[in-house]
Amino acid sequence: MKTSSERPSIGSIWVSLRLAAGLLALLNVPFFANAAEEMRIEGQYLQNRRCKGDRTDPAGMKVTIAPREIIYSGGVCSIDSRRDEERKVTLSVTCKFRSGAVSGADIAFEPHEGGGLHMTQQDGTFEADLYKCPG
Question: CA–CA separation, 76 vs 9, rounded Å?
Fold first, then answer.
């Protein structure tokens, strides 16, 4: 049996527990920070040119990204799923074109200089720069 001089004191046990809890909290911070810092892509954009936001922007170049759909001059794409990576968001979408045709695709969005997004259709058939509109 250990003597009282060999046993850890209640105070030292308490300090050890607090240090362990602090370390666990620090280890979990990056996981929670990444979840909280999901890239925001929703908004009004202009395709391949800076958006003035003064009603002179060409309607055919406007793109609206909402939480569940993307609206643009060619039609509407419903967002089926979203995958967040470090500096990229990939959306799996089903698009219904104005012609009536329906097609599925994966579209990746990455930050672009000037507060916009670089958009790439994953099969390589289309890419564009989207410039955020004010407001």
Answer: 67
